[in-house]
Amino acid sequence: MQGHVADTEVIAVSAPRTVTIVGRAAGATDVINGRYDLASVCHGRPAYVHSRGDLCIRYLKEEHRWIIACLGQDNGCVAFAEAGHFQHPGHIELEWMLWEAGRGMFCADPGMRALVAPTVVRMAGRRAEAENARINGSYTLAGIMEGRPAYVQPGTHHLIRYSSRTDRWLLDTDGLVEPSLASRLYYWIFRGDLNAAGERCAAFSEASGSEHPGSSDLDWFVWESRRGNFLLDQGVCCTTAPPSLQVSGRAGWRENEFINGEYALAGTYLGRVYYQKPGTHIVIRFWPPRSCWLIDGLGLQPSDACSAFADCLADSESPADVCSSWLVYEATRGSHLADPCVAVSPSGDDGSAQMDEQMLCSSMC
Predict the structure, then answer these.
(1) Which of 35, 107, 123, 352 ranks highest by number of CB atoms within 10 Å?
(2) To which H or E segment does residue 329 belong?
(3) H helix intervals, the chain
């Protein structure tokens, strides 16, 4: 006899896939910094496990708190925050209390915050010969400034941060260098605002309510000295897409098996990044009218002609983020057919670096 059976372990929750802890200063408990991935449900709310697999963030119903504890530990915790009305722990408003062994008590750490933001974003699409082409590259989550995540490009002074004064994301190529008195005086003379030096940047985007800058839907304006102004560069985007992808699973005896292989991020096209197989014209590109990713053996072209495609959500940032099987063209059938063996996934080193809160500790607020 067939029928539906109640399963009390199944639950639907509205929660982000990852939560990131930032801002805990170096010390005995700075290991709690990092990315936590959605793993299960505890007391009706989402539970997250650190990427290392040793810590978790979960809800403690008896005390109505979010706690950070060792995985598998039933009693005790290393940190907690009063849950209030928040249904998941990734809210920057939560105030965390950390266990201080030397004082034998929990103490507030105003610098530590939990947030929903990618650990790495990438600026892409600025032409190499253009002014301020140096904005291209990977930026790593380093802390919080003005209530939003801030990102730095390792090995440089480049900083992407939020400005509450203008409600913009600013990319400052000297963002980790304190402005000199002369610089601040210059801004005061010509703009009448001594604080305007803090708004200087090489590029900016209107935030428009975005929680982080890693969205291809944001338009970026880049400074051009010859025009003495910021100009919209429709080729520039800030994205969470990985630097390289691996396409696998198409059987060697089947048509269009050439789609298998390594692809590198090559630029932007039609509002999204695109990937190209080195030494070939084969690309993976976004097609806005249908909201899908295409694998095209003929390169970049303004059409939906392709060797393979997969549907995705309208805000998809990467071909690794699709919501259907990949369909591959077969001439004998005259159509694209689903091939569940085909997969597209990030490959190699994603270019991220360890988060370094100390780089921003003097300017975070």
Answers:
(1) 123
(2) strand 327-330
(3) 181-191
